[in-house]
Amino acid sequence: MDSIDQCIDYWWTNVLYINNYFGNGMACLGWSWFLACDMQMFIVMLPLITLFMYSQLGAALGTAVSGALSMILMGTLTYYHPLSGPSVYTAAYTKIAPYCYGMLLGFVLHSSLREKIKRVLVMWSVRWGCYLSSAGLMYGLVVLSFESSKAKYQLDPWPLSRKSLFQVYEEFAWGLGLLLFLLPWIVGHGGMIKRILASHVWTPLARLTFGAHLTHCMLIALWYSTSMHLFEWTPWDFLSKIVTNTVIAFTAATFLYLTVEKPLINLEGSKQRR
Q1: Short-list 27, 11, 3, 152, CA closest to 90
Q2: Residues of 117-153 as b/e, b for ≥16 C-beta within 10 angstroms?
Q3: What Cα–Cα distance (Å) separates residue 233 from each residue in 225, 237, 240?
Q4: Comparing C-alpha atoms, which of 73, 76, 85 is closest to residue 33?
Q5: C-beta of residue 51 within 8 angstroms of C-beta of residue 141
Q6: By C-alpha distance, which of 35, 21, 28 is closest to 93?
Q7: How confident is the model at residue 76 (pLDDT cuts 50, 70, 90)?
Q8: Chain mean pLDDT for the chain
Q9: Does the pLDDT of residue 96 top 60, yes or no?
Q10: Do residues 143 and 68 lie in contact, with contact meaning Cβ atoms separated by under 8 Å?
Q11: Residues 50, 209, 177, 194: what is their CA dihedral angle, to the nearest 10 degrees?
Q12: Distance (Å, rounded) from C-alpha 225 to C-alpha 93?
């Protein structure tokens, strides 16, 4: 079944934001699984956000337990059901741990702890401790991912116990690494790098990322399938393809934004002003 047939038969899973559970040739726009995953995590976390208004500690504990259970579940499913396929990787219940990190940070920043953390992060040694810890977690993740892929292609895959531990570490390191890296910036530090990344120059591109995400895989597949020559995988060739694919994807996203997204935003705004 090709991509067109998949979308004809299973388009409704995207509308309902449940397409991340339809793998094995049944997914329409398979790379959009995270959009469904993100929506599901948002809905699941609404009760904890409501609880935060009444019990900050209860909401924080509930979020922390949810993240821990997700990592344990990911490791367990990897060990006992290694052939369960993409549905485990793309399921909200195995991907929610980094989301929980963000929720916990949001709870902290909307509590009395915000000013205390801000005062502690005034010290450059603490800030650099956050940055170096983040770099260490991310570097370990890159190294382990490379070693896992290398073992797989050398037909000497890791044992299930190592795979399951790696899956747990992946969810743990990615979320915590981002949190430690961004925390000093969020409370007011970061210097020139923060000012550059927070510049309004990036606002137009930020508005196009959704469209670029939806279209980039189709455009890349179209480019490769219609090419009349072989590709050479040299560093320069690889870099040129990245630049070309990025430009094409954001050009398509601009068209979608001007013809679909922006008109709908204007309609919604005019309706609210009435």
Answers
A1: 27
A2: beeebeeeebbeebeeebeebbeebeebeeebeeeee
A3: 17, 6, 11
A4: 85
A5: no
A6: 21
A7: confident
A8: 85
A9: yes
A10: no
A11: -100
A12: 35
